[in-house]
Write a structure and sequence with these properties.
Helix 2 packs across helix 3, helix 8 packs across helix 9 and helix 14 packs antiparallel against helix 18. The protein is an alpha+beta fold. The protein folds into three domains: about 100 residues, Arc Repressor Mutant, subunit A; about 100 residues; about 180 residues, BirA Bifunctional Protein, domain 2. The two termini are about 60 Å apart. Strands 11-14-15-19-18-17-16 form a seven-stranded mixed β-sheet, sandwiched between helices. A three-stranded antiparallel β-sheet has the order 2-7-3. The protein has 20 helices and 19 strands. This is Phenylalanine--tRNA ligase alpha subunit. Tetramer of two alpha and two beta subunits. It catalyses: tRNA(Phe) + L-phenylalanine + ATP = L-phenylalanyl-tRNA(Phe) + AMP + diphosphate + H(+). One of its GO terms (cellular component) is cytoplasm.
Length: about 500
């Protein structure tokens, strides 16, 4: 039997009685591991060897893990300091114990978070107790961390999982391929295997010299599986966003843009949302620990303050709740892109506007929501508004019907709703094509006088905020938006979904 040189080398180095890894065969033959792998698969196709793969898991200690392996886990240090302070007999001041444990910065929170979890004691009302029966020397996480640092095997799996979760250890998964001679391979070696001087391609030089007549060409297995090659493409959510933009531009709208982190003034105060409104707490939006925003027009600030405290017009009453400039200047991640609408309608962004005007944005917003099939912490909002004389709810509903018809959605339903900033207001719903369930896809209404007058707008403005991800669900039949967007998204779904036009 005549085989290429690399295949002969691998065949002779393989064993019929034990598995030899690719790395071992590479060392024995002097060939690169990738060359050995290719030769092994070719020999497997000929039935001369079998190739198996075993999953492997390895662990590496991070820099933070190295620090704790040397100094001790924060919760263990906290326990030892608590016992030294007598907390195993009676509660002791937590500050005293933390100082004695020499803990600072993030290590304090880490220690407190794991102290009770491991049964070392309790932390309550600024005092700490220590369980006298706890044994920090038997801490499984500390033992597993020490074993990894010392290069030892056999660490507790649950402890390793917890160390990975804490970022003290990194887990790597891989596969080790091994090669074993088959009976046919043994027979071939006994009968004799010769090296064939083969070439894998015909060159102009071979043709010119006539060398091609004396060489043996390598055989190609045209039935062998080829590696799958995937090209990059624009995410389906981004493609839909661009399509939405094209549709709105075609309807006569211009695009807005602006900051993702903005003041409470632009995000909420201009929308006539009282400063004690539940949606303005940290439970619903993300506050940033940055200096307050200074770039707010003083005259506009005064008019918005007056609208909140005194109302607008002769019959205006305002809110019977406190309003402070300090709160208005605080900076949050925007919970809606209506902050952009306020910037543009006020003339602050591109100068004063004369009706009629139409603007839109398709931008990301951030909310402290509970994750579920229709909610994410960050998502895209389709913001839009029209400024003109004598607008009505009928104009607003007609705009939605025209817009959604471009995406094949013609069964819109409208439900009256309350917003602090629009009156009348209503929500939009569409029917999910797979489940038949009504899905909320947006919120809309006519801006109130309390919003428009402080901005200097004297005509009607109809406005809306629509969910791009919900539009995607109605277009494609997705029932869980987390399959499309986020850390748990289904890559195969994204690769295989045909984009609708």
């Amino acid at each position: 039997m005549r085989l290429p040189e690399s295949q002969v080398a691998v065949l002779e180095a393989a064993s019929a009685t034990e598995e030899r890894t690719i790395e071992q065969l590479s060392d024995d033959t002097g060939l690169k591991p990738e060359t050995v792998t290719g030769a092994a698969f070719d020999l497997e196709d000929e039935g001369l060897v079998s190739v198996s793969a075993a999953e492997t898991v390895s662990y590496a200690v991070t820099d933070e893990g190295e620090t704790y392996a040397d100094a001790g886990l924060p919760e263990v240090r906290l326990y030892r300091a608590a016992v030294d302070a007598g907390a195993d007999d009676a509660p002791v001041s937590m500050g005293e114990v933390i100082g004695a444990a020499d803990l600072g910065g993030p290590a304090v929170d880490i220690a407190l978070a794991n102290y009770a979890r491991k049964g070392y004691g309790e932390v309550k009302s600024g005092q700490i107790t220590a369980d006298p029966d706890a044994d920090p020397d038997a801490d499984p996480e500390a033992a597993a961390l020490a074993a990894l640092v010392d290069g030892e095997d056999g660490a507790d799996e649950d402890a390793l999982d917890e160390l990975v979760r804490r970022g003290l250890v990194e887990r790597s998964e891989g596969a080790v391929r091994s090669v074993t001679l088959t009976d046919a391979g043994v027979t071939a070696l006994m009968e004799g295997v010769e090296v064939a001087a083969t070439v894998d391609r015909l060159t102009p030089e071979m043709l010119a010299s006539g060398e091609w007549q004396d060489v043996e060409f390598a055989a190609y297995n045209v039935e062998a599986d080829a590696p799958e090659t995937r090209g990059g493409k624009v995410h389906i959510l981004r493609q839909t966003a661009e399509r939405v933009k094209d549709t709105l531009v075609g309807m006569g709208f211009r695009e807005m843009d602006g900051p993702h982190a903005d003041s409470e003034f632009w995000i909420n105060d201009c929308l006539f949302m009282p400063q004690d409104h539940p949606a303005r707490t940290h439970w619903d939006q993300f506050a940033l620990d940055v200096p307050p925003m200074r770039d707010i027009p003083e005259d506009l600030l005064d008019r918005v303050r007056s609208a909140h405290l005194d109302g607008v017009g002769e019959d205006g009453d305002g809110y019977h709740s406190p309003w402070t400039e300090a709160v208005a200047r605080e900076v949050d991640l925007r919970g809606h892109t209506t902050s952009l609408s306020m910037r543009y309608l006020s003339g602050h962004e591109i100068g004063e506007l004369e009706p009629p005007e139409r603007f839109f944005s398709v931008e990301k917003v951030y909310r402290n929501d509970t994750l579920d099939p229709t909610h994410l912490l960050e998502f895209f909002q389709i913001e839009g508004w029209v400024m003109a004389e004598d607008l009505s709810v009928r104009d607003l509903m007609g705009t939605f019907e025209e817009f959604y018809e471009q995406f094949g959605i013609t069964d819109l339903q409208f439900k009256p709703h309350y917003n602090p900033y629009t009156e009348p207001s209503f929500e939009l719903f569409g029917t999910h094509p797979e489940t038949g369930e009504l899905i909320e896809i947006g919120n809309s209404g006519m801006f109130r006088e309390e919003v428009l007058r402080p901005l200097g707008v004297e005509c009607n403005v109809m406005a809306w905020g629509l969910a791009l991800e919900r539009l995607l669900m109605l277009m494609y039949g997705f029932d869980d938006i987390r399959d499309v967007h986020g850390t748990l998204c289904d890559l195969d779904l994204l690769r295989e979904t045909e984009v609708l036009h």
